[in-house]
Specification:
alpha+beta; Beta-galactosidase, Chain A, domain 5; TIM Barrel; Immunoglobulin-like
């Protein structure tokens, strides 16, 4: 609103003049002792400020954009620029109302006015700001596919701020703009790379982010500095697919330097319908990156439903992952090898668990969902006997089934049942996946991959089969049932073709979580000690599992699984990336440092660790330390760097607590001369230590010396305790 004022000017050389002056409208502002947010009259974010530090992350850019389809065109863009909102403020809420929208329909190259209204409520809630949205679509023959909101554009990012993603449990990038630019628009021929550069990041679907495959473990990301940062959280109880918006736009000189961050939701709002979302929050915070964990966990505690894993799972140091028969027919291990060579080799490294793949007649990724014990090896009775013998003296068996794949060569598919329950795309065609395990030649990998369709976990037929497999695993005598590929969402989802526009299921991860809860509760009724596991790390599915077989890296260049371990320390996670006799000390030490279980995978599960003697020897030493201090290193709570101080550059250390005890694991990966540093643990006294390599610990535990790949574990007890 423009306010007309009159001002009297005085001059000795001229008569009095009365001139009109237009006052600049004041932004709408919310403020408390911690935060400030301001929106100008055009709907731009002009302040997003941490009042404790004075840091302002706003770049005077617009808060949203939207995409819709017509029968003739897809992804027509609606931008906030040029739209005039009605802005009001009531208490702790600012409301932006757009009663209609203008867009350029590129299919006809004309500007159109759309009978689509938007309402945005921005509310100050203590240490965070909530951004709620509502769409009402009354435009005939349209569907609103996508809403980007809230957006923080043209961000003035401080030099010390790193990009923290929850990808594979955590990824930390020193140069946010650089990593986005290097990993953006991965198919430039297919993307408008001249307009923006975008790095893919989406919860909870499989994505290659920053060059690493995996999925977002939690629905948040952040820019983290040494003493402050900016947190983005989509606290969405629907657990719907959410894009973590990471874009660079051109600056005045044409370089892609203008950073924009926010959330992308996918309303699928047809004409005559409305859609709303109040999940998205932003929080400028003070402190280390741990504050982002606390913000997310505070919300997660409103829905978290995790049981304490059976004691044997908590104490499990490592497992051997083996494939009995491969998908092209090669018999790698016999049932008799399970209580024989497999058990002996496992005992040599302190691994009492066997993770059994391809144990059925047709072998790995062959014949799913038919899992019939091999009649040539005694069938069900032969397999039961092998498991029973392995379990003597405390051995544990984890039994594999695939939670989603249906082999198109299986009888289940050929009979029609597989076709009935599988995912279909926006045309009604089946989605397929292929797994190319090569043999000794080249034909298999190039021409003869096994092809699968994907089961919809909402299907009652499939759910009954999942329960039947759990029952079968117990009947065989296994200690756990494992379902592959249920820990992430699918980009390929089942589409509803009954509406004017086809609509995908964007809550696949919620569906998978529902079936995992069903299986967990079913198992507990029969045997509380019977464990459940799945592959890939997503919080909503992990809560129902006793362990997670993680996919991808935990010790790579950008790996920061510290985030998930600190946020959800009760979740037991394996490290999958130690293979053969490569980079053993660094990777094994990392599993001790981060509290991960060793997934022993030799020659892609084709052999055992006795074929890699260096790995065998070193893991045996590491697992002996885990055994000695299992109450802390395996059963204790991961504390990251809390509870102690370490005055040494180049040494990484993490703390674990259980009862009155604390363990500190310290290691070093940098080359060069040994490094010494002092350790202070307030409220605790030193008890003892164990080391690997040439590590040295002082007699009273207040100083350590580590060379490259050395490791030390220091044990403390609370003062005044025996």
């Amino acid at each position: 609103m423009n306010i007309r004022l009159t001002t009297t000017l005085c001059s000795l050389a001229a008569p009095f003049l009365i001139l009109p002056v237009h006052a600049t409208p004041q932004p709408s502002t919310l403020r408390n002792e911690r935060l400030q947010i301001s929106i100008d009259d055009e709907g731009r974010l002009v302040s997003l400020k941490n009042l404790e530090t004075g840091r302002d992350y706003a770049g005077r850019d617009y808060l949203w954009r939207l995409y819709y389809d017509t029968p003739k065109a897809k992804e027509i863009e609606v931008l906030a620029a040029g739209q005039q909102p009605r802005i009001s403020q009531n208490g702790e809420t600012i409301t932006l109302l757009y009663e209609e929208l203008k867009a350029t329909d590129f299919s006809i190259r004309k500007e159109v006015t759309l009978d689509i209204s938007l309402r945005f409520d921005i509310t100050l809630e203590g240490d965070q700001i909530r951004f709620a949205s509502k769409i009402e679509n009354n435009e005939p023959h349209t569907i609103v596919r996508e809403l980007h909101y809230p957006l923080v554009g043209n961000m003035p990012l401080p030099e010390d701020h790193k990009l923290l993603l929850t990808h594979t449990g955590g990824q930390l990038y020193d140069d946010p703009k650089g990593i986005i630019l290097r990993n953006s628009n991965t198919s430039p021929y297919k993307t408008p790379a001249q307009k923006f550069r975008q790095m893919d990041a989406k919860y909870p679907t499989r994505t290659v982010t920053g060059g690493t495959g995996g999925c977002m473990a939690s629905n948040c990301f952040a820019y983290v500095g040494e003493r402050e940062g900016l947190y983005f959280g989509s606290h969405d109880l629907q657990f719907q697919d959410t894009g973590h918006g990471l874009r660079l736009y051109p600056d005045g000189e044409g370089g892609f330097s203008r950073l924009e961050s926010g959330f992308y939701k996918y309303p699928q709002c047809l004409s005559g319908e409305s859609w709303s979302c109040s999940a998205n929050v932003i929080a400028p915070y003070t402190g280390t990156w741990h504050q982002t964990s606390k913000l997310y966990r505070r919300w997660a505690d409103t829905w978290w439903d995790h049981r304490e894993a059976p004691l044997w799972v908590q104490k499990m140091r490592s497992w051997q992952r083996v494939i009995f028969r491969h998908q092209y027919g090669e018999l790698l291990f016999r049932y008799t090898d399970l209580p024989g060579r497999i058990k002996r080799v496992g005992e040599s490294v302190g691994a009492d668990a066997a993770f059994t793949f391809g144990w059925w007649e047709t072998g790995m990724d062959h014949g799913n969902p038919h899992y019939n014990a091999d009649p040539a090896q005694g069938g069900d009775e032969g397999w039961k006997q092998a498991i029973a013998e392995f379990k003597k003296d405390g051995g544990k068996v984890l039994l594999y089934f695939n939670g989603k794949l249906i082999d198109r060569e299986s009888e289940f598919y050929k009979s029609g049942a597989g076709r009935e329950i599988c995912y279909r795309d926006n045309t009604g065609a089946e989605f397929t996946e292929q797994y190319r395990f090569t043999g000794q030649g080249t034909f298999l990998g190039d021409y003869n991959a096994r092809t699968f369709v994907i089961a919809d976990t909402r299907s009652e037929i499939w759910r009954r089969m999942l329960l039947e497999w759990a029952d079968r695993a117990r009947e065989y005598g296994a200690n756990s049932v494992f379902y592959d590929q249920l820990g992430y969402g699918e980009r390929a989802t089942n589409w509803d073709l009954s509406r004017e526009f086809p609509i995908p299921n964007l809550r696949v991860i919620a569906d998978k979580a529902e079936v995992l809860k069903m299986i967990r509760d079913h198992n507990i009724r029969f045997d509380p000690e019977f464990a459940l596991g799945t592959e890939w790390l997503t919080d909503v599915t992990a809560q129902y599992c006793d362990y997670i077989h993680i996919y991808q890296v935990t010790a790579g260049r950008y790996s920061f699984i510290d985030w998930f371990r600190y946020t959800f320390p009760e979740i037991i996670i394996s490290d999958r990336e130690i293979r053969d006799d490569t980079d053993i000390e660094r990777r094994v030490n990392n599993t001790l440092l981060k509290g991960l279980r060793n997934d022993i995978e030799i020659y892609r599960c084709r052999d055992l660790i006795d074929k890699t003697p260096h790995y065998q020897s070193y893991l045996a030493q590491a697992n002996e330390i885990k055994r000695r201090y299992e109450h802390l290193l395996l059963m204790g709570r991961y504390r990251d760097v809390e509870g102690f101080t370490l005055s040494a550059q180049g040494i990484e250390a993490r703390a674990y607590t259980h009862g009155d005890g604390m363990a500190i694991v310290a290691t070093r990966t940098e080359a060069g001369d040994p490094v010494s540093g002092g350790i202070e643990v307030p409220g605790y006294r030193f008890v003892e230590s164990s080391t690997l390599g040439e590590a040295r610990v002082s007699r009273n535990g207040d100083r350590i010396t580590l060379g490259q790949y050395d490791l030390a574990v220091l044990i403390y007890q609370k003062e005044g305790r025996p």
